[in-house]
Each structure stands twice: as C-alpha cells, then as structure tokens.
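Summary for the lay section of the report: proteins are chains of building blocks that fold into shapes. Here we show the chain for DNA topoisomerase (ATP-hydrolyzing) and then a coded description of the shape we predicted for it.
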Amino acid sequence: QRKIIYTCLDKYCQQKIKVTELAGIVSQYTAHQHGNHSLPLTIVNMAQRFKNKINLLLPIGKFGKDAASPRYLSTILSPITRKIFPELDDPLLTYQRDDQEIEPDYYVPIIPMVLVNGSEGIGTGWSTKVPKNDPIKIVDIIKKMIYGEEPVKLIEELNHTSSMVMFDKSGNIKQYNSASEILKEF
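The coded shape description reads as follows.
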C-alpha cells in the first residue's frame, strides 16, 4: 500500500486512471519486485468501500465483492488521502533508494490507518489480524491522549482483539495485546 500511496500522492492518480495502468506505473516508479499480480489486487482492495472504513482511493467501475477484472476498473486518489498524509509532512520522511529515490520507509498519517482500516497478514511463523475501527473513535482517543486524559471507555471498545503482532516504531517485531498499546507506542 505504501508504494501505491507514494505513487498516487506524487503525481499519478490526480486524474481517473485504469487500475492495471496504475499498477504498471507503481511497479516502475517504486522498483516493485514482487510480481505484477499483487499490485492490481491491492489497488482494488484500497478502493473497495466495503473493505475500508476510509478509502484512500475511489472506485470507478464494478468494485463490488465480485469485482471486475482490473483492466476494466479505474480509480482516482480520494480527496481525504492528502489530508490523512499531509504534504507538510513530506520533508520529514526518509526515502528508500534503489538506484533512484523510491517510496518512503514509512508514512506518518495523522491517524493510525492500521487501526482504522485494519490489517490481516501471514508471515513465516506469524499471523496477525487487526480489526477495523471507527475513525471517529480513534480520533477521540488520540485527542484525549494528547490532552492527558484517560480514554478508558473508548479504549475498552477497541480492545476486542486478543493479540496483534506487528512492527514497532524501531522496526522490530512486537506482540501487542490491545489497540491501546499500539496507540501509546506510536
């Protein structure tokens, strides 16, 4: 997703674009080396309204459960995406290099998108599932934490996950037992 967001924010998704065309641009622009099949599917998932609490891409075409082939679908950057990833933060980002500057090592969205849209994945010996959460509740928790208040009621609502394994802010694998642990660290 980071490669797609980087490509779209930089210049390639300001106008309606075919999903397969965007996948090709992302692959070339970010030195993507993991095959061409995963990018179109990821772009489709980022645009499907029923899969996300906040869409970073807008769907143009049949993006439903039985989505049409990516070559028939188009997308465009959602207007909210640049608000979640403010342009003012761009100079703070560190970028990966592969004979050219490619995507940032990480983004710092104004709200933790992993808690908003959730995440699910399998790695060697690990699996993780972070459920989707209401973005308004996430923002309320962040505001309370900024002002030194204890957002107990809201955090209890988010703590319905038994365990989550993901990278911490130093890039190490860490097990979190609640959404509040993730919020406190980041």
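Put simply, here is one thing we learned. The longest strand covers residues 119-123.
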